[in-house]
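Following the same procedure, backbone shapes were mapped to integers, as reproduced here:
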Amino acid sequence: MTNQPEIINDISASSTETEAASAAPTRLTPMMEQYIEIKAANVDSLLFYRMGDFYELFFQDAVEASKALGITLTKRGKHLGDEIPMCGVPFHAADDYLQKLIAKGYRVAVCEQVEDPAEAKKRGSKSVVKRDVVRLVTPGTLTEEKLLDPSEANFLMTLGRVKGEADNVLALAWIDISTGTFRVTESSPERMFADIMRVDPRELIVAEPVFHDPELRPTFDLIGRSVIPQPAILFDSAAAQSRIQRYYDVATLDGFGQFSRSELSAISGAIAYIEKTQISERPPLMRPEREQEGSTLFIDPATRANLEMVRTLSGQRDGSLLKAIDRTVTGGGSRLLAERLTAPLTSAPAIQARLDAVSYFLNEPVLSDALRLELKGVPDMPRGLSRLAVGRGGPRDMGALQRGFDAARSIVELLSGKDLPSELKAALHALSAIPQTLQDHLDKALADELPLLKRDGGFVREGYHDELDEMRALRDQSRRVIAGLQQSYIDETGIKTLKIKHNNVLGYFIEVTANNAGVMTDSDEAKARFIHRQTMANAMRFTTTELAELETKIANAADRALSIEAAIFDTLTAEIVLFADLIRAAASALAVYDVSVALAVLADEQGYCRPIVDDSLAFNIVGGRHPVVEQALRRQAANPFVANNCDLSPQNNDKYGAIWLLTGPNMGGKSTFLRQNALIAMMAQMGSFVPAGSAHIGIVDRLFSRVGASDDLARGRSTFMVEMVETAAILNQAGERALVILDEIGRGTATFDGLSIAWAAVEYLHEKNRCRSLFATHFHEMTALSEKLNRLSNVTMRVKEWDNDVVFLHEVAQGAADRSYGVQVARLAGLPEAVVNRARDVLKQLEEGETSGKANKLIDDLPLFSVVLKQETPKAQVLDNELQQALDAIRPDDLSPREALEALYRLKEISITK
């Protein structure tokens, strides 16, 4: 245990402090003085202060950490008259505790010993080992395997703004340091929230003046604690270019592309924050890739939530669209699929390239199965690469790269000579570019079984390094000698329980029980032979000159072997990092293959079709299904999903897309129908086959969905206010290429208010926005708009009435509903029968004519309602109920002929007596 001297030194300091407590009650030990000094520089983080084999926390950090981690809070010394709270976590299990703290939103400063404890001891008994923060662990800068979800990206985002730029342009840059991904795009105050939520960063870093900007602050408050203000100097656009050049070690940024000043500010801020948190380490980031505005489908945050793209409204992954379509077998593939789903393309050629790749594997099932088998063994190469580059990697990360290279080689052999579509051909080229020299070097250097940590040794293959083999032989031979020496001591003393043991304080020693120790201490000759080292409660420990000399040889051989292996590890790491760009490109290619094959498997399994995607305004889906609901019904062995058509394409040589006004009952399937068409459009533009018989979709550039009801009490918004805010955003932003899904606009207020708002909104969509729209409503009066608006059509959810009940057919048909069947649905929900009957009576009166003047009559009837509840149940109803109960009690299969006859007489008697 190399850090043991430090523990002894710190304890000694505490003893000195205790002795002087009466004279100077506020005096701190040198160790605590060092802690307070380091903590003062990291006030916004919990300080993990390394002491031996533990990370210790003190003062308020200890109080918070003990609660968050559920660990014991102890005390150590005093400060200003009060005892100092303390808690700690083992060094070897630190990742588990970090995972819990990061999940709860904490930031952690990791403080390590930066010198050998022996050097501190030379300076004096009261000197403490030098320590310093080597890393800030934050939610957006994680690299450890235990702290990351393999299926999700872990983005850190920065916001850049330069005053004076035209149109108040903002810029967003986002990095996943665990994979090296680095992208940047321009934004605006109006769409900033949508752009941020599309990426869904774990941390959003902004300059302090921007954080307090009254125009942007409401958005930051909405995002919450993941927004971290930082000094404005990190975003200084004047110094941005030089900071970026230093990080990438280039003389000019001409090869990076053209960036605005705001984009340079955001890029520089991201790099500055990485440098701040990683201290001396430099993750190998990709060069910033500029994302062109409009290259992806704009989806506002409300729409992302309503459509449950990545998570359900309750925050679960199960039940989301991503979960329903994910058939990937690698972490990289799963992350790429999520990225494509959250940012569908708006370029028809690019979409066609992705669809071509899916079609290729769908038509090559044997090849697809073979490729999928190879992919299942592919480890997460980008994350292993990043850990190695920042000094947190181990031999198994190298082994992951080695296995990834082997899989890449097999896939290249599998696909070579095939007539591949463009996307798959480019991916094959990236796999072929893996440097063979690096692959061969790893094969020669790494053993078959690899330890987790390099300090454990044993990861270099035998025969790779001559001196290492020599040191290992000496070390292993000496172990056999130790065993032989132990046996000779047993023979010499006659103590069969004698053992030669080792620890980091005493080294090698002989241990015998206290009862047997007399053999080694009874004579002067024995005492000279067996030198006493330590007395324990039930044992005594000794050494010999022979054992001490052997220990020196063993220690030197073992230490030298570990030193050689550490040097080999560093050499291999440097060589790996040198080829970082090629390794990442190969990993991206493997992810492309995984996603393409997975979507082909999905299409074959679920019966999806290839959509036609072009630059027209078409939107014609035949036999469309909801991808999530359909699979849920299949798992439950319920009735099959009812497919429906949807045609919002321009009609009769019209220039613009159509609007469907959808009426029908609650529970009839309106919301499902609305959502499924939005999801089909997204899936088509992400490059996936879609759940339909056929689909022709003209590029959608903006997708808006207003489905469901919710409030926003934190910002003082009622359900209706939220509805109006989201509707306003749609009407103000939708253009002719947009797809708008609206459900029950105006239902949160008075009937006539709601009807008027919904009416006006439809007219605005038709005349001003001119976009393809689905508008569901219970305001049946609006169906009259089809006579006035030429691009509006009435459609309805079909139902059948039977025996005073309603049967939902879930079919969409031309025409309009004349009622919503709300009372029937209320009955199905279990409302008391008296309430349902009264509701029918009120509804009948309201439907007899205009509602004006009816209210007073209904109010006059209200006392009757309470009387009805108190009245005795009508005789006929009592009879029906008693007969029903008697019938329910009869089990025909259990009755003998005689018992059946008696049951019939009882039923007859009930009917006569009542």
User: Anything to note?
Assistant: Residues 1-25, 862-873 have pLDDT under 50 and may be disordered. The first strand starts at residue 46 and ends at 51.
